[in-house]
């Protein structure tokens, strides 16, 4: 796999911290607003130990816990340097397939060490739904958080810079990974692609980090000035705050990552991306004077949201203008669904 371009060579390293125990990690995560690396956080996992023996041992260990169900796998084209992205026609440059995990692992084993082998990638596989006992034997104590635990398995791959709504603790179990990170406000300088036609549900940077075209993407140099990089070995972990952009590379012939996503906000709240998509549908193409009015309303009801918004309404009658509860959020969701179905 090619190396990142020279423009990325001077990136700052993600700070590293040491944690004494689960309570210490919990406190660090609670107060963190920027990324950090914890070396060796999951070094005692049986999965990490198997991978240190060999990639084959890691695959055998993981397969022994797999449920007898089809897995969804992405298979790219040979000679793409592992990049799972768009092709020249802005279609995906990989195909999706379904197969049992032992069959997928057999394909990976046959290709191991071959130059220009097609990338094979299993993304965001739910640990509980697709494996029995793997999570229980290999997990991080995250205190009272109730995270979504996922496993990511693949050959050498490059995943374009994107962000996720939840906080993220990414733990390298097998192989090596390089993360290139940018603060959330750098989205303008990353040249995001389509919002609705994406490789994995989130908009991605159109910049090729191994060959950035600064004539086409000149502001990428500004993003790099704010970027950080972390190269992780098996057993290491990286905390990625919510909405931070991250470009992810699997550097070994076989790589496994376990990550934990969690949100501090209640699960019954809506997804902000849905609101953005709806605003594109309902507001973006209005006349300028109407857009200005709706911008003012959004600021009033959503972003400022001070006491003056509801002071003139009797408290029992404030409905969805009051702080949301699971019940009022459910009513609002049902109202939106009815409106969208018209």
TrEMBL record:
A Pfam family of this chain: Cupin_8
Cross-referenced SMART domains: JmjC
Domain JmjC: from-to ranges: 97-277
Family matches, as InterPro entries: Cupin_8, JmjC_dom, RmlC-like_jellyroll
Origin: domain of life: Bacteria
Transmembrane segments: none
Gene3D superfamilies listed in its UniProt record: Jelly Rolls
The protein's name in its UniProt record: Cupin-like domain-containing protein
Species assigned in the record: Sphingomonas hylomeconis
